Structures are given as structure tokens and as C-alpha cells.
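User: Second chain of the day. Same drill as before.
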Amino acid sequence: MADEPHHELQGESPTHHREGYRGTGPGPITPDGCAVDMYARLPVNDEPEVIAGAVPPGASLLELGCGVGRMTHPLLELGFRVTAVDESAEMLERVRGARTVLSPIERLDLGERFDVVLMASFLVHAGSPEVRRGLLDACRRHVAADGCVLLQREGEDWQTNVPRERPLGKGGLVRVASATPVAEGVNRVHVEYEFPDARWTQTFLSHPMSRAEFEQALAEAGLVVDEYLTEDRIWVRARPVAV
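Assistant: Same format as last time:
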């Protein structure tokens, strides 16, 4: 019988949903409302190529919020040495070939530095200022002095161009149904995922940030934008500020 997957444990992983976050549909749902089975269906787009083009070949890479390994696996194939972190054990069960760590990102402290710290999936837009600071502090804490942090931002009209929908994977559809203000600078975003055989929803809190607000948040964590990697400024490379 094959060995059970083993994940390093950092602190305590949430056992219930995060406040303001909810998911519905078949299979396990993570503390922030992500449906594990749905995320396993998402296609790999050009993200691995964007990442590979922005960092040295074979770099050590800390992936924060790896999910089921949608980007982890292509990055491993490209020769990166990946440590994959997620707060959901069910997500990490799908990850193969990488060192895995079970932990909320904002409480992560591995006592190590990496050439690259990667935080995708718009996590930098966390609705809670305290969580957002914790996420960026974790990025700064783990990046080497000569390394970089790669971040994925929301598109600048991501929460105003609603409702909208687009095809997703094999026969699927994703619909951003609403983005409703619930506090100053914070929206409750509701997303629906429909496939021929299943339907999921996710509701989460998000803080839209202008370019200036984003750069200020980085500065408060000791990071500075080095380059916007894509024309839409969704992918960003930041560097640690020398102390």
C-alpha cells in the first residue's frame, strides 16, 4: 500500500470557514470557501511561463496558497524546487512532487529564505487589513535578500465589470455574479462555477486596490515593485527593501 501523503505542519490550520468566506457544492470546501474538486478542474494557463520568465532557472520557490497544485506541478516540470503551502489538507492531498506545508500563510515562519516567493490567486486583496499585512509580512519574511516576490493582483476593473462570465476548462463556465460593498473599501464577491455535472459557488471578501494603494501596502511590508510583468499589471515582481 502506498504511503499516506505527509505534510509539515506550521501552527494550527483553521477547522472552520474564515469569517465572510463561504463555499457550496460537492466535495470538501476549504476555510476560505474554495471547492477542492472544482479547483482540480481548473486549466493551467500561461502563469507558469510568466513566472519562469521573471526568475532565475532552477530557483528555490515558496508557493503560498498552492491549492491542488495547478501551478505547482508545471513549475516542478520547469525545474524549480518548490515548497508548497496551503491551509487546507484536502488541497495538499492533490499535490505531488513538492515539499508541502500545512499552514495559514499569515502564520507561516519556516525559518528559511527562498529565491522566489509566489503568492497568486489575488490573495493580496484579502478583505481584512490584518490578514493582508500578515500575508505580505510572510512574503517578506521568507524571501532572500537578493530574491523576489511574485504577486498576482486583480485586474483594475475586476470588481466593477460585474456581472460577467467566461468559459472555464472542459465545458465549464465561471460567473462573477456580484461585488457588493460590506465595509469601507471591502466588497463581498460572489462567484459561480458551472459544469455539466456539478455546480459550485464561492463567496469571499476582497479589498480592491489602486496601483498606488497596492504599492503602499508593499512598502509597509518592506517590499518595493521591481516590475509589472504583464501589460495589464496583474503580475508583479517585487524586491525586498534593504535594511
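The radius of gyration is 17 Å.

User: Great, on to the next one.
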